[in-house]
Amino acid sequence: MARPRIKDVARHAGVSEKTVSNVINDYVHVSDRTRRVVREAIEHLGYRVNLAGRHLRKGRTGIIALVVPELDVPYFAELARHVIREAEQLSLTVLIHQSGADREHELAALAGFGSDFVDGIILSPLALTADDVRERAGAPPTVLLGELLEEGADHVAIDNEKAARQATEHLIGLGCRNILAVGGREAPGLGTAEARTRGYLAALSEAGLAHHPEALLPVDGFRMPEGARAVALALRTGPRPDGLLCLNDQLALGALRALYEHGLRVPDDVAVIGFDDVEGGRFSVPTLSTVAPDKAAVARVAVQLLNHRIEEATAQDAGPGESRVQAPQDRVVAHRLVLRESTEGPVGPEGPRPGTAQPRSRW
After folding, report:
1. Which of 186, 209, 291, 352 could disulfide-pair with 357, CB 3.0 to 4.6 Å?
2. What is the pTM of this model?
């Protein structure tokens, strides 16, 4: 059976093709009765809007790319779900690509994969430089996630430095005095790990606590095995910590395992807090305190920014007009400190400092 067309819907509803088009596009000047009759005809015939044709008439494909370092990292998987949901609201299809944090892969993504099959790109880079972003002339519209690589593209992130400072302050407020940063990087840089490390160091400094280089536990990757290995090594070679700031939840979950294997109780002996609020942390034993970025808002802002840039580019391609291209935007999305069992309870020889313990917070 042939696929129903818009003229079939019009014939069945007893209206013009233009009226059917107005209903499909939610044109306001259509009576409720006509709108109901047309929608009933659409449902009865099983008519589906030809989105490909609609996009091509606008000089677009209706496809955007989401490029993340690793697809099996829970944070990126959860973020992808939100991006897909937001894109669907704009009749956009999302192509998901894994860069492996490889610079060549990220450069290829930044250039639109060398073809015109995507209208725009949402990219979470780990290996690109500021020059790479500035030199992307002729590339598709792009929105960057994570830390800012200087101006040159729209950018969406949480305030990672502030978030890490707040998380460290919470540990200090519980009485922790020997706090290790799992995944910490003191080297200068614009990456997320560097920003979170700066927040950790700022909190220690403000509390008058000394910082020792060995308190930064480097990792080769931000996964559970690396977190477990880093903490196990620290427990074997240094004084026992009473607090752990883990730069993502995967590291924190690995750290919980290492602490368990060394006979340490969480949070009684060591308080642990992570980043990202992934689902696994809500079911670990104990449940994991964490910095929770508003992932839904990150996706919503990124998709809306990208769609606006795509429409700008389409208008520019159509010829001279009144449209004016706006300067790149830097959007900061909210985060929240979510306190669960891994930091609830007295830790450290002094116990909680009066007036500093924070109430339990939930989404």
Report:
1. 352
2. 0.78
